[in-house]
Amino acid sequence: MNNLNRLNAKLSRYSLYVACACLTGLLLVVVYGVVMRYVFNNAPPYVEQVALLLVISVAMFGAASGVRDAGHIGLDSVVALLPAKIQRWCSVLVYVLTICFALLLLAGGYEMAVSTFATTIPTIGVSEAWRYVPVILAGILINLFSVEHIVALLRFQKVVPSWH
User: What is the total count of domains within the chain?
Assistant: First the structure.
């Protein structure tokens, strides 16, 4: 379990670094686009597509890191009233459902990447499949992180967040 914990902690940290870098890039690209459009009256055509790729990346890598650090939104007011043993099994169920969602994310992202591989994003000249790479990677990461949480719950342990 320690190897999985170390691997997932590093992956989560790198995932958050990528999300932060993409968020910084998004800020720079959008500011650049606005300045070019309204100050120089020369709007670059690629700004919107690059910004869209960066938004997808921020959302996917941020969500994956949030699963590892248990930072996702939870409505546990009813579960908190249950006995501790049932609370633990509810947590296991949540992570099993998270795995199901991540598998759908992974499969859907892969299917979309394959179906759009031959199509090019006209303003930046890369394959449409690149839009789905963050979705596929997030699906893989969310699965790894959820398995780690399930194993920890079954062993009566806690997953130490990457940012402690």
Answer: 1
Does some domain include residue 163?
A: no
Q: Are the beta carbons of 139 and 105 closer than 8 angstroms?
A: yes
The answer to whether residue 16 is domain-embedded is: yes
Q: Give residue-wise pLDDT tens across range 98-139.
A: 999 999 999 999 999 999 999 998 888 899 999 999 999 999
Does some domain include residue 159?
no
Q: How far is CA 22 from the centre of its chain?
A: 12
Q: Is 41 exposed, middle or buried (0-12, 13-18, 19+ CB in 10 A)?
A: exposed
Q: Which of 60, 46, 148, 149 is nearest to 108 (CA)?
A: 60
Q: Is the whole model's pTM more than 0.85, yes or no?
A: yes
